[in-house]
Amino acid sequence: MVRAGLCAIVGSQPDFEVVGEAGDGAAGVGLAASLEPDVVLMDVRMPGVDGITATARLTAGPRPPRVLVLTTFHQDAYVFQALRAGASGFLLKDAEPAELVAAIRTVASGEAMLSPAVTRRLIDAFAAGAISEAAAPDPRLDTLTPREREVLMAIAQGRSNAEIAEDLGIGTGTVKTHVNALLAKLGVRDRVQATIVAYDLGLVRPR
User: Fold this and answer.
1) Which residues contact 28 (CB under 8 A, 6 or more apart)?
2) Tens-place pLDDT, residues 17-56
3) Please, which residues have CB within 8 angstroms of residue 55's CB and are 6 or more apart in sequence?
4) CB 24 within 8 A of CB 32
5) Structural contact between residues 125 and 199, judged by C-beta atoms closer than 8 angstroms
6) Among 3-12, 118-127, 144-153, whose mean pLDDT is lowest?
7) What pLDDT, in 10s, does the model give residues 57-78?
8) Which of 16, 107, 157, 205 has the fewest CB atoms below 10 angstroms from its CB?
9) Residue 194 exposed, middle or buried by CB count within 10 Å (0-12, 13-18, 19+)
């Protein structure tokens, strides 16, 4: 029933096409290998191969799709593992259809789906000890310029490029340049992964 509802919402968009659906992670990974979708909507809890393992398998492939995790966030502590596995973001299952469509467009364009509200919950989880911090210094921090560190900290706080530009008194184009540079230096794909790295490395800490 849930999959049918998702298919109806996604399929109603003129520029979207539902190319396949699966009831568990193993079947989903198999279908994705043959169908090569641009975006995969992934549930965390599934029979057999769960969403975390499936996400890791999908993002490790030669042409990985963007993975958008659907979850009841307050119940699924494993969502953090899904993000570490390479998911491009996550959306609550009770989100409105328009939010789902917007989220798909966001991750399909190469951006990450990490809203300020979700970032707040991520910070709370760090504060509560739900996510462990790295014990040893990471050499990747030394590769960042002072400005790139500032931009990374702003990303980890859920700030958009426009907000970062205003905060730092620079142009949005310059912010994009810094974002691309720090993503490359950290070896991550998007802002979600960068946020996790920022907290793991202790560059940003919960207030």
Assistant:
1) 22, 40, 42, 54, 58
2) 999 999 899 999 999 999 999 999 998 888 888 888 999 9
3) 42, 67, 69, 82, 85, 86, 87
4) no
5) no
6) 118-127
7) 998 877 889 999 887 755 556 6
8) 205
9) buried
CA dist 161 and 63 (Å) reads 27
The residue with greater pLDDT, 37 or 110, is 37
Instruction: At 40, give phi and psi (nearest 5°).
Output: -120, 125
State how far the Cα of 201 lies from the Cα of 196, in Å rounded to an integer. 9
Q: Alpha-carbon torsion 11, 119, 32, 52, what sign? A: negative
E-strand ranges in the chain read 39-43, 66-71, 89-92
* Spatial distance between the Cα atoms of 129 and 168, rounded to a whole number of angstroms: 31
Q: What's the token pair of residue 129? A: 């000890």
pTM: 0.70
pLDDT digits (tens, 9 = 90+) for 146-190: 999 999 999 888 788 899 999 999 999 999 999 999 999 998 878
Quote the CA–CA distance of 135 and 202 in Å, as a whole number.
9
What Rg do the C-alpha atoms of the chain give, in angstroms?
17
Return d(Cα 25, Cα 116) in angstroms, integer.
Answer: 29
